[in-house]
Write a structure and sequence with these properties.
The complex is a heterodimer of chains A (about 290) and B (about 270). Chain A is of the alpha/beta class and about 290 residues long. Chain A is built from 11 helices and 14 strands. With about 270 residues, chain B is mostly helical. The chains are: A alpha/beta (about 290), B mainly alpha (about 270).
């Protein structure tokens, strides 16, 4: 039986906002990425899994229990990180962690302390005075401190600096080894690529694809921006590689697996500068799903 | 049945507010009791006769010759209806609407505690504060009265008056809690809670102001808290404040029922 199961749910907020006929499942021990641009319906789906809102039609269940009516049962083995971190401003970090631990009925703060040390979070600070990154770390500590079997994480690494993002990815990998079931929304490719087994992609409220991560990786491309010494060679290079010239001396090329031949072609031209970056999720959509993404 | 952790958290964040309101009420309460002077009352009567309209507006239009009547007139006619109301407005709004508006309700719901238990905890905390406030004030006035004018306060009537006041405050609490549980934004919750209760108060003040408007008293539920009737031992007045209790409890139930069923934008 699937741990998380979303069956044909619709939640219509009007003006084509919301989610429409969405279905997917997350199996036991699986890490599922939930990808999509902002406003695509990731959080709306997660809110239904948390029992904050009812679907207009369809059903959502976790461990076979209805997410709205049995929410309190489900929460016994679930850790949740909200997409918008709204802690209680009148408390210090430690007071908040203690309070939530009591609400969750945790016997010990051992794991919370480990997590705070791991993320280098000083919990004595008033939440009101915390930076965005600190608040995000607070959210992560609260989600993971009960060592739950299921984790639902809404944009977990937003607001973290790159060092902490990597630490977070390492932690997800450790949790995965322990057999946790994780649903994680994101719009950062790298994060999903390193951690997830499968990915559900959502756009404008519809699931576009539920795919194995390997298939996505194959279609993922790097963008090379090459600056050449003169406009003529830029034009020639663009024609040869199918890149997009910017009208000056620069050409942007999207390259997937054939980097070797791209570099060898490039060697024949007078290169002034070369930068490489990964595709953004939006660019990826454009490529992977053709004209569907705007 | 309730969550001890949440109750404690509300206690920790709310005790200052409770203290401030207790202090204000203490100041007014003691001041009014000290002002009581049976001989001086003739002077007050002259004042009432000279501007009956203005005094009546604040429910102080009755000539008061006994300590009990004096206190009920100058404290319970207006001050004790308004100050606790402000406290209830702030507190009720904090207990539910503020968590939903700020989004931190998400953390409360991401625990194995049912929405029903959350709502009951908040409700119980609100009632606890009100009972504490009224009980404290009752005791304060009895002690001050006995110290200044031994034997003059008619304690059984005075206790019944406070039971009536508690009914009125339960009704206020019901209204404000309902607004807090039904609306997603503190702005709306405040507007409806404060708007309705202030409208009721204004209507009551108008209906006190003269015979021309006395019919208005049927347009405000506050008429059910009939101070004169309670002191006179009128059974109708007791039924009046019992209705206020019942209305308050009905609003508690309606607010809770809405909160446990509805979609929360968190």
């Amino acid at each position: 039986m699937s741990v998380i199961s979303v069956n044909n749910i619709t939640k219509d907020y009007g003006n084509s906002r919301g989610v429409f006929n969405i279905s997917f499942t997350v199996e036991d021990g699986e890490v599922m990425g939930f990808l999509g641009p902002n406003g695509a319906g990731k959080t709306t789906t997660i809110r239904q899994l948390m029992g904050f809102i009812h679907p207009d039609s369809g059903s959502v269940s976790i461990n076979g229990m209805d997410c709205f009516t049995k929410s309190h049962e489900i929460q016994k083995s679930l850790g949740y990180l909200p997409g918008e971190i709204a802690l209680m401003n009148d408390m210090t970090g430690m007071e908040f962690i203690r309070f939530i631990a009591k609400m969750k009925g945790l016997a010990s703060l051992e794991r919370a302390k480990e997590l705070m040390a791991y993320f280098e979070l000083d919990p004595r600070v008033r939440i009101k005075k915390m930076s965005k990154g600190m608040k995000q770390k607070m959210g992560i500590v609260v989600a993971f401190m009960q060592d739950p079997a299921i984790l639902i994480l809404d944009e977990p690494s937003s607001g973290l600096d790159p060092l902490m993002q990597n630490k977070f990815i390492d932690m997800i990998l450790r949790e995965k080894k322990k057999g946790k079931t994780i649903l994680m929304s994101s719009h950062i490719f790298e994060e999903v690529e390193k951690t997830c087994d499968r990915v559900a992609i959502i756009r404008q409220g519809y699931i576009v694809a539920v795919d194995n991560i390997a298939r996505l990786q194959k279609s993922k491309r790097k963008i090379f921006t090459v600056e050449l010494s003169d406009r003529a060679s830029a034009a020639a290079f663009a024609e040869k590689t199918g890149g997009t010239p910017d009208g000056e001396n620069r050409v942007a090329c999207a390259v997937s697996s054939d980097i070797d031949s791209f570099i060898k072609t490039l060697a024949e031209y007078p290169v002034v500068d070369l930068t490489a970056r990964s595709q953004t999720l939006e660019e990826f959509f454009l490529h992977f799903y053709g004209g569907e993404a705007k | 049945m309730i969550s001890a952790a949440l109750f404690k958290r509300e206690m920790k964040s709310g005790w200052k507010l409770l203290l401030i309101f207790s202090a204000v009420l203490t100041m007014y309460g003691v001041m009014i009791v000290i002002m009581f002077d049976p001989k001086f009352m003739d002077g007050i009567d002259v004042m009432i006769q000279s501007m009956p309209g203005l005094m009546a507006l604040f429910g102080m239009g009755e000539s008061a010759s006994s300590l009990t009547h004096f206190i009920s007139n100058y404290l319970y006619g207006f001050l004790l209806q308004v100050f606790p109301l402000v406290f209830i407005l702030i507190m009720a709004n904090r207990l539910i609407a503020r968590y939903v508006d700020s989004g931190s309700m998400a953390y409360l719901l991401a625990t194995p505690i049912k929405r029903l238990r959350l709502a009951l905890t908040q409700l119980l905390f609100l009632c606890f504060c009100i009972v504490l406030l009224v009980a404290y004030f009752t005791l304060l006035i009895i002690l001050t009265g006995e110290a200044m004018f031994p034997g003059q306060l008619e304690i059984p009537q005075f206790l019944l008056l406070n039971l009536g006041l508690l009914g009125l405050l339960t009704f206020y609490a019901g209204l404000c809690f309902f607004a807090s549980a039904v609306f997603n934004e503190t702005k709306k919750s405040n507007a409806v809670g404060a708007g309705l209760t202030i409208a009721f108060l204004l209507i009551q003040m108008l209906s006190n102001a003269g015979d021309k408007f006395s019919g208005l008293k049927y347009a405000t539920p506050l008429t059910l808290f009939d101070i004169k009737g309670i002191l006179a031992g009128d059974p109708g007045a007791v039924i009046g404040f019992l209705i206020l209790y019942a209305a308050g409890i009905a609003l508690f139930i309606a607010g809770t029922a809405s909160f446990i069923r509805r979609d929360l934008p968190i």
